[in-house]
Each structure stands twice: as C-alpha cells, then as structure tokens.
User: Fold these one by one.
Assistant:
Number 1:
Amino acid sequence: MKLTAVPGITPVSLASVERTTAELHTLLVRLRGPDAERDFGLETAAIQAAERAHEHRAGLLAVAEHRDADPALLLAGSAPVARPLSVEAAAELSWFAADTTPGIREVSTATTARGYPVVIVERIAVDGPGAQLQAVVLDPERPRVAVFTLHSPGGRGWLDVAALAGALVAGVDLSEPARVP
C-alpha cells in the first residue's frame, strides 16, 4: 500500500512502541499548547495508541490536524481477506455494518482515484463528544483490504479532519509495496 502525503496529516515512527509513544506524545503536546505538558491524559492516549498500532501491525499511525478542529488520530493498515472483493461486496459490507453495528451514523460507499471501492462508516458518540470514521478500501485484484480508522476524542471540527483522512484514502495505491509518506 502506497500513501501520498497530505498536508495536515503527520505520521509518527512505528520503529518501536517507545519511539511511537514519544513522537506521538510530543506531537499532541505541541498541538494542544503550553498547558498540555502537564496533561497526563495525553501521555496515556499516546501510549494506548502506540500499543494498539503495534499490536495490529499498522502501516501508519498519524495525527490529523486542522486549524478549526481538535486533533484526531489516524491508524491504517492492510489485512488479508478470503477472496478479492468487488464493488458489490462493498455494498453488501456497508448494508451489513449499517444494520448490525450500534452507534453508526452513516454508511456510504465511494471509489478512490485509482478505482478501488471504499466502504465508509461514521460513528458519532452518543454519550459525549467524539467521532470515529472507518474507511475500508477493497482490492479487487488481491485478497486484501486496507483499513483506515480516524478518531477524534473531542469531535470539534470533525468534518475538517475527516476531509483530510478522505484525501489520504482517495490517493491510496494498493498495487505498490507498503510505503508511508
């Protein structure tokens, strides 16, 4: 999977859990401002995100930032599936997700610039602020999918950071070996 650089999306190293945690924490503190250095919640969030990225063998862990939005975490990776999936499979997956997953606000399908079908699932927290978006890019040539998860704990400016993730997903190239901007 090859990803193009998108302004506003800053990847962090996945060399080790410790390095991922340190880079992510530094980035989150910078985005939150001078008082964030004393916010132990940011450190906990960085540790949890780094551990999850390594546990799931992510290809990308990044922060999506927009001047009018809370920063959001973006996690991406590819996963094998039983068989190559088609546009029809994308539609079936979107209907299944909409019918069986609680908290789903919207499920839609799209196509990337390279013609890959995408299922987009958006969740908005019902018990407080926060939003999550998952985009599953299907590879009709190989039995695999690329999964992108964007999470904003605060939810302020959600559409702005979701648009950044959309730009990244739109440019994905599954024909290339793994490379991150």
Number 2:
Amino acid sequence: MPFYRDAVHPEEPMTALPLTLTPLDLLALALLCLSWLGVTRVIEHPPRRRASVSVLMKTYRRDWMRQFVHRDPRIFDGNILASLREGTSFFASACMIAIGGGLALIGNTDPLAGIARDLEAAEIPALLWRLKILLVLLFVANAFLKFVWAHRLFGYCAIMMAAVPNDPRLPETEARALAAAEVNIQAARNFNIGLRAVYFALGALGWLAGPWGLIAGTAIVTAMTLRREFASGSRRAILRDLGERRP
C-alpha cells in the first residue's frame, strides 16, 4: 500500500494513501466527469427542437462557403480564416504555459502548503495537492490537443478553399466548397471542445478548496456553458436570422 508524508509537517509519521480521498471527494470527481461528458453530449447532439449555438453555426459555415464561391476577390475569406487560426493558436499557447506552470507546481508544493496554513488545512498532504493540480492539468492538456488539431484543420480548410475553382459554373466548384465547409465545421467543433475543457479546468480548481469547492465549481461551469449554448442572447439573434432554415 503506497504512503505519503505530510507536506506541512514532514516530521510526522506517514499515513496510508486511501485516507486522503473521502467519499465526498469521489462524489465530486464523479459529478465533474459526468458533467463534462454530459455537457459535450447535449451540445453536440441537442434535442431537435432546441439546437445549441454550436449546431446552429454549422448553417452559417456552409453558407459562408457557398458565398465564397461567388466572391471575387476572396481576400475577405482568407482574412476570416486567418483570424480563426490566430484564435486557436493563442489558446494553444496559453494552454502550454498553463501546463508548464502546473508541472512546476506539482514538483514544488510549498506554495500550496503555505495556502494550507492560511486556510488551517495543514492536514492535507502534498500528494493530494498534486492530485488536485493533475486533475486541472488533464483538462488543460485535453484543451491543448483540441486547439492544436483545430488549428491544423483550419489550415486544411484554407488549402481546400484555395483549390476551389474561380468559375462557379464548374461542377466541382460547389462540391469542393461544401467539402471545405465540413472541414471548417470539424475545426470549429474541436475548438469549442477545447474551450469547454478550459472552462472545466477552471471549475476543477475549486477542488483546492475541498470537495464542496469542486462541486460548486462544476455546477457553475456547467450552468454557464449550457446557458451560453441554449439560453443566450446570441442564440436568440441567430434563431431570428435563420428562421425556418435552422437545423
């Protein structure tokens, strides 16, 4: 059975690892995982009569490529795609910095031990601090991988757009444009998943305040994410514009 030594009082005898996680901790972790998977499922596959913003935007991305075929010159479309790639690049870089900072904190939990003293939580071992930081890093690492793949997919989309013939009368013109739209949709899907991973990483930080902090962080992030996708002003504006065309 593995053991840990208390980070705040290293001179005290070691205690068995299973004592570090309470049933409430396990319940909070299960709630976090179920919320993460459930939110992703509901947003990507919403009820037919209540589409999410992410699903509604697919129509605009396909319309964009249809308009792109008839636009001359196409500099405007290139600038839009470049801005999308810059956004994914920014978030990927931010995740790399966060991962580096988290790994450094795992290697030296003294700053967290100081926080524990301030909160009178000196009984929390260093190993449990590392576990809490690792949970946050798992979400951040997932976000990083999604942002990197989204960046690459936007690059594929740019190449496919460049391969669309300038003559809209050619039979392959619209087919290639719609194929580029589907790649663009997949890139946006990965970008959105990465953003949600960042949101849940912030919610997972609540575990540093204990299991109730994790439960509260999970509830806040879940409610905020669902509101933005299903009850936001932007969604109402999109629905007004789409009208009967909504999926």
